[in-house]
## 1
Amino acid sequence: MALEISESNFNELVEKSDKPVVLDFWAVWCGPCRMIAPIIEEMYKEYGDKAVIGKVDVDNNNEISVKYGIRNIPTVLFIKNGKVVDKVVGAVPKATLTAKLDSLL
């Protein structure tokens, strides 16, 4: 299961990571979020220790959502060396997400 990123573990898992980070901002009530959830899980299994793949529940982690200006969900951020280097908003095909991550590896 993809990592549950929260305000308590964000610094350790995201900001201090020496690997690329993929963050899926989602909510339980969001239909398109449920559409990409299986893709995020597949990426977590496929990329293993090459990248950090995590999910941020926007309802429970408002501080992180505000920090990155998340206004629409799902939003997937691609972070390298603590900086956002790419972003996708909305439900997109797996190939779109994996291509962006592959470019960071």
## 2
Amino acid sequence: MALEITNENFEKLVQESDKPVMLDFWAAWCGPCRMIAPIVEEISTEYEGKAIVGKVDVDNNQELAVKFGIRNIPTVLFFKNGEVVDKHSGAAQKPAFTAKLDALL
């Protein structure tokens, strides 16, 4: 299951992670966000132990959305060694996300 990433746990779970991280910035009212939610959950299960997969609710964690300049959702950011190294905006099929994650492994 994808981790819930918040303003409070971001540093520990993302910036201090020794694994690549995929973060889905989303909101409950966002249709395309709901479309990719099952894909994000599948990826979190498949990559368990290899990567961290998390979700950031932009309504509840506006500080993180502002920090990373999230203007459209869904936006998926990919981190390595605590730094953003790739990004995907908008809904997409699973291979678009897994290809970016695989490149970081």
## 3
Amino acid sequence: MSLEPLPPVTRIGILAKSRLQAVAPHLKEIADWMQSRGVTAIFEAETAGLMDDRLAGHIVAPKATLARDVDMVLVLGGDGTLLGMADCIGEARSRIPILGVNFGSLGFLTEVTLPELYPSLDAAVTGRAVVEERLMLKSVIRRDGATYREAVALNDAVITKAARSRMIDLSLSVGEEFVTRVKADGLIIATPTGSTAYNLSAGGPIVQPTVEALLITPIAPHTLTNRPIVIPSTALVRVQPNMEERDEVFLTFDGQTGFQLQAGDDIVVGGSEHPLRLIKPTTRSYFEVLRTKLKWGER
């Protein structure tokens, strides 16, 4: 995915992790900082609730509005908070970039630390930051011969069984070619960005976000020869659950949304034509982030 300069910023949406009280003291300071630079702060409605009586005079808008009508979104929280905003932007087919500040515990996506908040904001507002495009997934689910649901995800689309269900049986195809039947606890279809999420814990490979690829990783496969595979991002992955009446199989997107599948459902997952745009205000490389977050090379 390409790097490009960030266009001029005059309206910034602010979204914090739900009920994150630790961020409350920073919200008024951020708004004052933006106002002193001629930038309009627009608070997501639930985030505004963290400010109490300090909200006077500030603009409040729903999350869906932030996905369409600002120049960038500042996310304060962990990767889950950023994923929720990213998926909302993806659904809106918007090009609004995100700057993630980590208030969580790991933060592959929200890699900016709290001490780096204002230098990172300044780089964005003054046009010194760059934007990195990240591949997103588009999933189409067909039921009874018609499109039942569509979804956009930054990390992954995951098919899993219920907690006490037996393993599930999935027919997997890439393009028009049948690949295999996967008998496992589930299946992950991930982007390179999502390679360090559920895919990693399931034994899948880490893939640099700039690589144009999709990852297919079985979850606890019954057959040891069912291994993860990397395919081109232009390919379409088709999954058909082979279900009996008692089976409970679920499809989730980025761990944010999902629903229960039915026998006969047809799931097609591919790369979205609308990438997510992440603001990269720091000079940390991807491998430096991996060393920091995963403690590579440490004993």
## 4
Amino acid sequence: MHIPVLKKEVIRSLNPKPNENFVDCTFGEGGHAIEILKRTSPHGKLLAIEIDPELYKKGEKLKERFGERLILVNDSFENLEKIVKERGFKDIHGILLDLGMSSWHLEESKRGFSFQRDEPLIMRYDWQKDKNSILTAKEILNKWPGKDIEKILKECGEERFAKKIVKEILETRRKKEIATTKDLVEIIKKATPKWYQRRKIHFATKTFLALRVFINQELERLKKVLPQTIEVLKKGGRVAIISFHSLEDKIVKSFLKEMEEKKLAKIITKKAIKPSLEEIKQNPRSRSAKLRVAEKT
């Protein structure tokens, strides 16, 4: 069951009212979107963007419930301005960016996002079975030079044992193909010290994060979409962004500060809003979430 992170806080920040229009740049399984659509009835519309073709198909079932009020697009949010223009979507009161993975990706996609399952090393959101030519984690781990893999682990995952992990990757792939998440977890286990494996955060977290962020170009796409959110919002409209790791949050924080300095937006959240202990207990995956909100001036 997918539980939308910081749902109450997002709704409080965006404050959707009847007949207002919103954009959900990361539709996922529609947790936030459904709540926004409920509050903007009878005529408010939601433009929902979803990069994953399988999640997009699942989301289409909601069309039966909300009809023309839900405009669902299978695309990347980095094309926000283009999508808004093509759909003639105007008078936007709020935009949501939830940068976390949906539970579906971890539990059902079978693409290797989770180190707790034994799955093929794909790690792509836009994966389709006929798209064998696109880059996967398996290709990087088996074919890329060690120095390039080390760079990914350091820059996209801030992995302190990147060098040792890469050394183990190179030794392993000389003997056999690194094909599954289980193979990768074993490599990381061999390469990292025992104390690192006893910590609260799983020892494979940063390596998996780094590969996923790099393959899906998550940081680049975030940098591209942020200026577009301010561009397409109406004056007084708000953008709410939920990030899940320090690299994302740093980009968001820096962007909002720049917008405020240029007097293009006002930061509403002087400090990032974090999940309550109750929410973390109910949904442990929410623990690293940070919500930042700004209003277009």
